[in-house]
Amino acid sequence: MIPRSVFERYRKLKDSINRYRRLYHVHDKEEISQEALDSLKRELSDIERAYPEIVAKDSPTQRIAGQPLPGFKKVQHTIPQWSLNDAFTEDDVREFDVRVRRFLSPMFKNPQPSYMNELKIDGLKVVLTYKNGMLETAATRGDGVVGEDVTHNVRTIESVPLALSRAIDCVVEGEIWLGRAELLRINIERSKAGEQPFANPRNAAAGSIRQLDPKVAASRKLDTFIYELANTSEKFPDDQIGELNYLRELGFKVNPHFKVATDIKGIIAFWNEWKEKGRRQDYWVDGVVVKVSEREYEEKLGYTGKGPRFAIALKFPAEQVTTTVEDIVLQVGRTGVLTPVAHLKPVSVAGTVVSRATLHNEDEIHRLDVRLGDTVVLQKAGDVIPDIVKVLADLRTGKEKKYVWPKKVAGCGGDGSIERIAGTSAWRCVNRDSTELAKRRLRHFASRGAFNIEGLGKEISSLLVDSGLVSTFDDLFTLTEGDLLSLEGFAEISAKKLIANIKRARRVEFSRFLYGISIDHVGEETARLLSLNFKTLSKLRSAPLERIVAIKGIGEVVAMSAYEWFRRKEKIAILERLIQYLTVIPDEAPQGAAFSGKTFVLTGTLAGMSRGDAEKRILALGGKTSSSVSKKTSYVVAGESAGSKLDVARELGVQVLSEVEFVRMLG
Question: Is 120 annotated as catalytic?
Answer without folding.
Answer: yes
